């Protein structure tokens, strides 16, 4: 997949841990050096929506000036930008707001848009128009449309489905067609892209009759390490027969192996990319428009954060270089190590120590240390140290009882461990402040650090109280 091959887009998912604009400016040249040709930008609630769409804008959203700066830096690096706006499923960031809740497909659930309402289409058009206004000269616009759960279960849909020949598939296709037609009529030089999962199970006949294949390019996504190559080849053939001119593939470099994953097993993602290379080699040369390496930051708008972008850069580097070179080899590994300033790239195991010189590498180093050792070291002291379990149990702590001799056996260890971890956490907070907003740092610490650190702090505090009570 060397020069002149398909486009390689890096997906930046901003619905969690959206990086500061200045960090993106540091990362873009690296992405280009690694082989990326473009970006798929999923802004979600970080886009500076204005006017009636103002409520969609998160407190940490980018300013219009920041968006322009990132786009101009991307252009300088020769990276083409494809914006992504969800227009059907995964619309929690819109439909959670009271102003738009009446446009839900199912009243109680904020995930899917009601496709019957004229106002739903007007909302989608307004979102697309505002995003397009900041993105000049683009060739593609991704309109989402994946995982439209509960479609057909709203009251209006139930009535519509009672009419002869109406099916949930037709309902899905008619909304995709309406959104794609809206893009085509307002922006005739722009091609809409859709995630393909809602199309996979639809018959060839229904797809061909819908008119959708003439309007959009499907992005076939699969993040498994053992994805079914033959199945994908057949799917591509089906899409071709239905009239789709080109397809995209979507692999994953993070955010696909566990909803609360904090570290990355590069081997899983590498295998996913090697499988996609097999699919590409068995497909017609002219069918593949490009490959998007997805980097999910949350599984959906309400779930916890998964791996942070700086933590995932070594994996992204391996995957990009693998696609660019048509496979993985010792040479690819050396390229990646050189570009990232790393000397110990591990692919088949989680790296227990990670040091590099790429932007945000200090975050990777500290997140690795915390993920590997914080919980285990605290549990070792509190659950496996016989002096703590035998002489300073919850019963003792509640009553402030401590044997003065026993205290000397573990108090220094507890105080020293607390001091060590407080230092690491301070360093991580300082490193994260360079890359992320306060809300991201708070969330990551509350999920990954405080449960263990607070347990340790509590034992040290209880020990102090018990000593005071003795004296």
Q: What features would you highlight for this structure?
A:
471 residues; alpha/beta; globular; 8 strands; eight-stranded parallel beta sheet
SSE layout:
Elements: E1 7-13, H1 21-34, E2 38-42, H2 64-76, E3 80-84, H3 92-95, H4 118-134, E4 140-142, H5 155-161, H6 168-186, E5 191-195, H7 197-200, H8 204-210, E6 217-221, H9 229-242, E7 247-254, H10 266-281, E8 288-295, H11 309-325, H12 330-340, H13 361-384, H14 386-391, H15 394-399, H16 404-433, H17 438-448, H18 450-470
The radius of gyration over CA amounts to: 25 Å
Given the helix and strand composition, which structural class is it?
alpha/beta
Form type: globular
Reported for the largest beta sheet, the result is:
8 strands, parallel
Strand content: 5-15%
Order of helices and strands: EHEHEHHEHHEHHEHEHEHHHHHHHH
Widest beta sheet: strand line-up? 3-2-1-8-7-6-5-4
Average of pLDDT: 96
Description of the molecule:
With 471 residues, this protein is of the alpha/beta class. It has helices at 21-34, 64-76, 92-95, 118-134, 155-161, 168-186, 197-200, 204-210, 229-242, 266-281, 309-325, 330-340, 361-384, 386-391, 394-399, 404-433, 438-448, 450-470, and strands spanning 7-13, 38-42, 80-84, 140-142, 191-195, 217-221, 247-254, 288-295. Strands 3-2-1-8-7-6-5-4 form an eight-stranded parallel sheet. Strand 6 (217-221), helix 9 (229-242) and strand 7 (247-254) form a beta-alpha-beta unit. 42% of the residues are buried. The model has no long low-confidence stretch (mean pLDDT 96).
